[in-house]
Amino acid sequence: MGDEKKPKSGGVWPTVKPFVNGGASGMLATCVIQPIDMIKVRMQLGQGSAGQVTRNMLREEGMGAFYKGLSAGLLRQATYTTARLGTFKILTNKAVAANDGKPLPLYQKALCGLTAGAIGASVGSPADLALIRMQADATLPAAQRRNYTNAFHALYRIVADEGVFALWKGAGPTVVRAMALNMGMLASYDQSVEFCKDNLGFGEAATVIGASTVSGFFAAACSLPFDYVKTQIQKMQPDAEGKLPYTGSLDCAMKTLKSGGPLKFYTGFPVYCVRIAPHVMMTWIFLNQIQKVEKSFGL
């Protein structure tokens, strides 16, 4: 009788489960975080402080502006987060099995995070490009605005106007940023969970909140310089002579360093951290709750 309640170990579900759970938790978190992400992008595009951006958006565009690009954000989570969290779970499970069931050292967790981030970003780059363009559209002169109506319209227009490979414009900095973010986020979360449980004796709720807070900070600190470059590359437009402001991510990084110094890469760090940390926290909390519900149903 007891064996009937145990989750089945065979079939397709155990393989796809980490991917489904990762995508679902990321999408739920995005629904809450989208307004903060919108403010962060506008700040990186030079529209002022968080307060100024918020006031201007409310006055000029209304409340709906804070959710512009939500469809692209959800599509991004359905691709990027599904791939990265699912891949990280599979990689760490295989690494633990190869380690005779012992907890992994931090460097192995970091390597798993780097790999998962690269795979997730490669899959999610088209949706990420659509999201950045939709969020930045209102900052452009009226004649240059693309006026995408939703994520799928954006993807269709990009392919029609610029070709299929344009979907991966800025993919290089996107992948590098994702590798840095996931190294900070995933490795520090697993390490913090072990520390909270084994060294501090925290319960489940306190462990998830504490570990996800640490995870969010390291994800933001590691990834913001790459996120800044990625945003600049993805939103750039040719001038009247058809010349782009940057030839690539390295050129963007060097020009930024020369004009504003290293701290320029951390423009909007408080807002970025506020955006990343809650998203990370809610992703882990939602993931924990989803897993508990599945366990109660024997899945």
What does this structure look like?
- The chain is an all-alpha fold.
- The protein is globular, with a radius of gyration of 20 Å.
- Helix content is 72%, strand content 0%.
- The chain starts with 12 loop residues before the first helix and ends with a helix.
- It is built from nine helices and no strands.
- α3 runs antiparallel to α4, α4 packs across α5 and α4 crosses α6.
What is the gist of this entry?
This protein is an all-alpha fold and 299 residues long. It has helices at residues 13-44, 50-60, 70-98, 106-136, 151-162, 171-198, 204-235, 249-260, 269-296. The longest helix has 32 residues, at 13-44.
Low-pLDDT residue intervals, each spanning 5 or more residues? none
Annotation, overall tally of beta strands: 0
Helix/strand-derived category reads mainly alpha
Helix-residue proportion: over 70%
User: Which word captures the global form?
Assistant: globular
Q: Could you tell me the radius of gyration in angstroms?
A: 20 Å
Largest sheet at a glance? none
Which H/E pattern describes the elements?
HHHHHHHHH
Q: Strand percentage, roughly?
A: under 5%
First-to-last CA distance? 17 Å
Helix segment tally: 9
Q: For the residues shown, what is the average pLDDT? A: 85
Organism: Liquidambar formosana
InterPro entries: MCP_dom_sf, MCP_transmembrane, Mito_Metabolite_Transporter
Family: Belongs to the mitochondrial carrier (TC 2.A.29) family.
Main location: mitochondrion
Write the layout of secondary structure elements.
Blueprint: H1 13-44, H2 50-60, H3 70-98, H4 106-136, H5 151-162, H6 171-198, H7 204-235, H8 249-260, H9 269-296
Helix pairs in contact: 1-3, 1-9, 3-4, 4-5, 4-6, 6-7, 7-9
